[in-house]
Amino acid sequence: MNTRQSTTIVGNPLTENHTKPFCFAHLSDPHLSTLQGVRPGQLMNKRVLGYLSWLRRRRAEHRMEVLEALQRDLQQMHPAHIVVTGDLTHIGLPDEFLQARRWLDSIGSPQDVTVIPGNHDTYVHLPWKDGFAHWLPYMQSDDAGKLFPGLRIRESVAFISLSTAVPSAPFLATGSLGAQQLEKLALLLDETGRRGLCRVVLIHHPPVPGSEKWRKRLTDGRQFCDVVARHGAELVLHGHGHRTQENFIEAEGVRIPVSGMPSASATGLRPGRQAQYSLYRVRRQEPGWLIDVAVRGYDADRDAFTPQARRKPVLPDR
Ligand SMILES: [Fe+2]
Ligand SMILES: [Fe+2]
């Protein structure tokens, strides 16, 4: 991890004492399933569009050999936790959920890997038992309560997971949180802030308004940003864009970083879209947090992930 850049993020007053660094990985949008052998009867809805997109482009872009290299790299880097911010499938078929579950099992245990859904995982409505039930151990909160927002606390970090995955009309890839999830998010941010934890919010769609095309936007992104600005967070991580995205949410003199990653399985047919993931190392520093970020990307010539020259911008100060 030799391309780290340090970032100081000011958090809430300390009420718990954690000084040891905690390292976690963020990856997104693996779109890992293969659609070979799909039956025509399974495509009698919006899924036919996703299938054609897979045939035309995505099957060449999202490759299992990249995910195998990623798996090797994760084993070597050995983060204490891994977060996956959605779009594990292409068109959300039952077989794809099973393939994704096997892949999740290969990168870590449900205790060590946190997953949220993306819009491709809910392309059309699918009965719970045929889809998300397979991922439940990876999505569930520590208290095994209701899903989304979820809360998993690992050492000094509180992972707060959200779902923006709702079926959308053909040609749209929008997402929505809804009022209920936003209300509970506010409560969780307050609670974890009072406990002095580093609050990392996981969301599939880029939440900052204007940061994504209209047809791919988060419909209540403005409301999300208002909640985060009012109640505080240390970091917001997302996927969906299949490219590096860096934004901020302004909050009373503090800019809360909002960071998106390219697809974790992309061969990089389009410039700037090659697979990457981030390694975060979180350490308490009075006042607040020191968060180091190292980005690792796929090198096709070496069939391996290597440190990237790209660095995250220096973030923020009061
Ligand atoms: Fe995606
Ligand atoms: Fe997406």
List strands and helices in order, with pairings:
Blueprint: E1 5-9, E2 22-27, H1 47-61, H2 64-77, E3 81-85, H3 94-107, E4 113-116, H4 136-139, E5 150-154, E6 157-161, H5 179-194, E7 198-202, H6 221-231, E8 235-238, E9 245-251, E10 254-260, E11 276-284, E12 289-299, E13 304-307
One fe (ii) ion (FE2) binds at residues 29, 31, 87, 118, 120, 240, 242.
Kindly describe this structure.
The protein is built from six helices and 13 strands. With 318 residues, it is of the alpha/beta class. It has a single domain, classed as Purple Acid Phosphatase, chain A, domain 2. The strands form two sheets. Strands 1, 2, 3, 4, 11, 12 and 13 form a seven-stranded mixed beta sheet that branches. Strand 11 and strand 12 form a beta hairpin. Helix 5 (179-194) runs parallel beside helix 6. One fe (ii) ion is lined by residues 87, 118-120, 173, 204, 240.
